[in-house]
Fold each of these.
Amino acid sequence: PGEAPGSDDGVVPGQESSPGVVASCRTRALLPTRLVRLADSELKTHLRDVLGTTAVAPGALAFQVQGEHVHPTKERFFTAADFASLRASLQRAARAFVTAMPASSPCRSAGGEARCAEDTLRPLVAKLYRRAPTTEEWSALSKTHDALAVEHGAAAAFEGALLAAMLSPQTLYRSETGEAATTRSVRLTNGEALDLAALAFTGRPPSDDERANVTRLSSGELPGALAARVPAWASSSAFRERVTDFMAHWLGLDHLAETEKQDPAFDGAMKGAMTSEFRAFVADRLLADGARFADLFTATESRSFAGLDKIYGPAAVAGGRVTFEAGKRRGLIGLS
């Protein structure tokens, strides 16, 4: 915010009699705001977190933008060639995301456009923007979605709106307020810190109550307030799902369904059993009450599912537990 037109001191005309307003306007006028482009690695990681690695396979985001996001101002912008490469890559990602959705999804079915916009597109936009879209932002994007739906159908409308959100400055840049330090570090506002923490744990923006409680705190009170929210965030189903998905990506299990081997026993049933075993193991050894992180790598037994007897032997009975062979298997790395 800058000074109001015709004002010499940052005072909004008609409010000169309010000292609080005067002080507030003067303070805001002294704080510069910069747009900082996300680095390639930051943007790719962010998009995979939002869209999921099932839809966005490793290597799918092949764009490479020249220049560093922390260099002088000109380096923060895109050349025409870079932007064309980025747009083509993100369009493929948007199409892959739509294709991976069930055929019955409102976003792929005629007549489901309104439900798709509110239930699917809007939450995705909030994740892409790292905050809830403003009324004006959502109005513009939803109008684009609705217009595309009339002309091209539900799937194309969702793909186009998702691509528009991914290419928007709200996704590609982050704003920094205040004088830049020599280390290029800038302290986040309370709201920005809360947004990042909530999105990291739950994948969703914070609630209005959380935001109201944090906004009024001093900078010294903020760390304690965020720490107090961690148990509630960490106990949410959204957090458990994010942790499990992270571990699956780390082990390469997010593409297990597409993996092929020469062994005929490695069929769809076995892949499903391996996935079920992995998810149960993470739930038992990492997410359960009283679980210890070390057990994730040192445990000597796991739950068994139908089909795993081909790996563990006849002792692996569906619904039971299987003990790893001593010296050969242990922990998460030793699973089927």
Amino acid sequence: ERPILEIRQRSAVETASGTEPVSPLPAPPRVAALPPQRFVLLALDPATLGRVAWEKAIADLGATAETFTRLGPVDVTILTDPPVRFAVATRDPEEVKRALARAFVEVKPRDEFFGGRSRFIAEMERIFELRLKPLGTGRNPEGEEVRQRDPNADRVLQAEFAARELAVEERRLLDRSVGRLREAASAIARPLVAVWATQGDPDTPGFVLSLLPDWVSNQDRIRFQGRPLGTSSQFERIWGELAADGVTLVPWSRNPEALLEISSPTVSHSARYRNRPSLALGAESLTLFQIAAERTGGELVQSESELRVAAERAGGRHELVYQ
């Protein structure tokens, strides 16, 4: 392997005996240390990105193409199943832009994550479209007083089932996104700067509980059985493995309200949520990607300017590898 750091010791200059002192040898010229070449992966996940996010991600990546090609060879990969490479190891920023433009035309974003949350909200509204009724008592044909059957029990069970189903689906989406990212990264040399354009929120239970007051007065009416699914801690091992493998993650992700998703048909199902899509879809949906960036030495970016700064910082980093 090519050494990236060399340390030499120069002995002190000693004066020779005699009438004429010996002039010390000139010091070698100072040479600025250059960081090693890095490889770059621009990876976009159409399954988790909505239309507005897809357009913004491609625009931001295209605007910073020149910065990335200065770092090293760039790959443009769409995280479908299997991942598709639209550009391979190019140093030409125009080729990167053409690859992104082709991906924009040929690949359609599916917005499965926040689209799924929108459908969940619609389902919960359907379940709880009638006010919860208080329990009462009645009499059976024999005239005995009996407690009436809870008219809300079926709805609570339906809501519990819908919430657990949502948790499983959201975890599946994030697992697949991370898996495809790792598959795409495995085809590229190291050290690697991987820009991961995606969206999602691992805290499904928190999302559901934040909405329950709109439907029921008692948040304990809906529970998750066992350990909640989809928590960000379950990805910690993956971030550690990527960091040890020489991968720096730069997640590109935006909250729905920052992307004006209010204009998207996926969140227009209910007038109740048209004025607050961030609450409806998860206002704190960037935690997973913030942790991924911190654990791998990268940073979370949400705009073109932040992406450019992150790329420049990545290019200025030195790595010390020891065995």
Amino acid sequence: GGRVLLAKLKVDPNLNDSGLRHVALQGEDLVTLGTAGVHVYASAARRWTTLAAQEPTAHFAETDGRRLLVGLPDSFLVISDGEVARRTTLEAPLRQILPGAGAEVFGLDDRGRVLKLDGETAQVLAQADPGAPPDARFTRAAAVGSLFVALGPDGILVHDSAARRYSFTPAAALPPLPVSDALLVPGQGRLWIVSQRSGDVRSLKIAGDFPAKQLSVESHGSAARAVARARADGAGLTLVAADGTLLQLASPEAQIVPQVGPGLPEGLRPVSMAASGAAYFFASKDRLWLYNQDQRGWLGPMAAPEGGAGLADIAIAGDRLLG
């Protein structure tokens, strides 16, 4: 019984029942976990061996006792037959251990990351990026490829919904941006940022890795007037001013140029815009206008499609204009 066993041992003073957390029987050997670390008692040799002097932070004992999975502050151990069968290096202590299929083992560390613990070093399966401060406010947002980008007075948040990664850049690390009245237009490799009040045009480029994405802001001049609509056009940008003027930025390196042509018979206050080739359609309430970029001329106003009174948006599908 237990009394006979203890009588035969020279017990380490740290090995006492007050600090003992778990005992597993593997063959004829006893493996103990406690405040003194991880120890094994070999019944044949009648002696204790220290497998680890650190206090475990997490453990999982399989039902048959053949494997004991132990998390230490800097490593993960698989203990089998009273010996360390595998050791995996950790960057942070484990909080929870969960065995998978076969030899797979997963863990959750105190940084909130999900790890795969099958090799010499832990593989990060899911990061736990801090994201934005809890009191951060955002006023504008747009999808840029696979990324979700949100702008606000406190900074810019970049989120990859598929990878569940976040990166936040505080406003103090960026040049001033028109976050309160910005039109956000995804473009080729950048996000266009247009001030509706002033017509100033900037673009945001995103590089680097999570959680420290590198953001760079470029200035592209100004339309020098209020802007109602903006649309990405190839590598550039097309703007519709509040006074009906059409302007174009052919490329990020070009200047903003008005597309001069015959004036409109009346002011244009568009609510939506659609384009097909060189033709730009503009909708305003129950009327439509067409601007031909090649001819630099306007056509309209035209009646909206049947049932299109009070248009809120228009779109082109094939050879049809939908409203």
Amino acid sequence: SNGNDSLNYSGPGGLIVRNLEFAGNGHTPDKSGVLLQGNGNGEPASNFCFEDLDCHGYGMGGLTISAGSPVLNVKIIGGRYWDNAVGIHVSGGIIDNLSGRTVFDLYIKGVDASGNEWASSHGPFGLSINGAQGVKVDDCSCNRNGRKISGAGHGGLLLRLCTNVTVLSSEFIGNADPERGSDGQGCVLDGVQNALVEYSLSRDNLNGGFEIMDESDGEWNRDVTIRHNVSIGDNTGLMVFLHGGTNLRFEFNHVLNSLYKAVDLSGSGPDDRLILLGNTFLNPGNFAMEAELEHLRKCEWQGNLWPSVGSFNVAGLGHFTKAQALLTALERATGV
């Protein structure tokens, strides 16, 4: 690539790129293997397919969509995106709020976005998807990202300011933030609406396995369901860090052998109730649950199983009994 974007496309669309390798030269900052910029005249661009590419060695994304104007119907099928700052980076135009999104109908299937460990303002992440509407991530691997470089923003999959999102049958393993320890999540949802994460595996991540947060100014998470997933050996299995949100649900997940906490509920809590239904928490580390008391008052717990739990910790109350925690959290079902 000689320090430049290897393939830089701006045009009306109808582009297919298949079975090619793009190799960067020294991880030049802000350069990508494939850069899709939409239509140069501001009109919508549509119908793109990137299939079985091998993109590595770039200081931005192995594949980057930087769409100042609408980009529609993008398929990324198979391939490896590794040894970059971000495996695949999607930036949907002005993304300070949902009205600025410019990427529509994004489908990512069977991609391996692992081993992206170079510093940038956007990473390292395996997949970083920002400002998109109509996103499906299916059967993807986002593993071992961020392990060499310290700084903010390390993880497997980040979905920020997106609407109509589905994540299926994907894995997030061994993502880390080696020095700060405050990042390194498996799957993060930040300011998303109408989202489902299902049938996925998070394992051995340095921070939360499945996390809902709201660091995006002015946009809270709404109608988000995380269900039928497995967290094994993550620092924290299910994590919520937010100041508002509506209809947020963790359902029928299995959280096993969390190193520190099975559940972490931080921030002032959602506007509406946070629902935890039918989850199983087995062999947590220091805490089964850590939470702000105000957050707990807005939660609804039903039918969760807590065999072999550790202690509970709520700000202002210190360590207290399981019975007190469940009463505070409105756990209602029998057999708990």
